[in-house]
Amino acid sequence: MSLATGPDYLKLPNVPCVGGSWLTPRSAVEADDWSQITALARQAAMLPAGRSRT
Fold first, then answer.
1. Are 20 and 1 in contact (CB under 8 A)?
2. 15, 2, 4, 1: which is closest to 49 by C-alpha?
3. Alpha helices, DSSP H, located in the chain
4. Buried b (16+ CB within 10 A) or exposed e, 3-34
C-alpha cells in the first residue's frame, strides 16, 4: 500500500481507510522530521473517498 495505490484500495467496499509505514518513513522518524510526516499524513487524508458505506 502506498499513496499511489491508496485510491485503488479505497474503491473496495470492505476498505474504509488506508495507511501504512509509508506515512512514517524510518529516515523521517530518526531525524525527528515531523513536518515530513505531517505532510504525508495530509496527502493521505486528501485521497479520494471510496464507495459510500451507508
1. yes
2. 15
3. 6-10, 26-30, 34-45
4. eeebeebbeeeeeeebeeebbbeeebeeeeee
Three cell numbers, residue 12: 473496495
Which pTM does this prediction carry? 0.76
The 10s digit of each residue's pLDDT in 1-30 is: 899 999 999 999 999 989 899 999 999 999
Q: Which pLDDT belongs to residue 1?
A: 85
Question: What local confidence, expressed as pLDDT, does residue 49 receive?
Answer: 78
